[in-house]
Structures are given as structure tokens and as C-alpha cells.
Specification:
The protein is α+β, with helices and mostly antiparallel strands. It is built from one helix and four strands, in the order αββββ. The longest helix is centred in the N-terminal third of the chain and has 16 residues. The radius of gyration is 19 Å and the shape is rod-shaped. The termini are far apart. Keywords: Antibiotic, Antimicrobial, Defensin, Disulfide bond, Secreted, Signal. One of its GO terms (cellular component) is extracellular region. Its main location: secreted. Has antibacterial activity.
């Protein structure tokens, strides 16, 4: 019985510590975070005031308009 209780406690703690509850943004290519990784850039901000971190290859390229 103690082993079962210990196992359930450990599983409950691991489920709380496991990352992965991040919100997706920018057509599901980005993730809302407080900090972006080195290979990501901020393009827009999420609704929860976090940065939408997107890899540069998924960001739209700027086009120069001839006048």
C-alpha cells in the first residue's frame, strides 16, 4: 500500500514539473514564452503578454516595394 501511494505521489509531481503547456502562436509555428532561445526571434506578442518566439525561416520576408 505504501509503495502504491509513493508511486502515485511521484507521478503527480512529475506531471506538474513536465514542461509542455506552452501556448502556440503565429500559425502554430511559434511558442509563447518569457525568453526566446538563441535560434528564435520575437515577431509578435501573445495575448498573455509573452513573446511569440518563431524560428526565422517561418517569419515572413520583407518585400521592397518599388515606387
Amino acid at each position: 500500500m505504501k509503495l502504491l501511494l509513493l508511486t502515485l505521489t511521484v507521478l503527480l509531481l512529475l506531471s506538474q514539473l513536465t514542461p509542455g503547456g506552452t501556448q502556440r502562436c503565429w500559425n502554430l509555428y511559434g511558442k509563447c514564452r518569457h525568453r526566446c532561445s538563441k535560434k528564435e526571434r520575437v515577431y509578435v506578442y501573445c495575448l498573455n503578454n509573452k513573446m511569440c518566439c518563431v524560428k526565422p525561416r517561418y517569419q515572413p520576408k520583407e518585400k521592397w516595394w518599388p515606387f
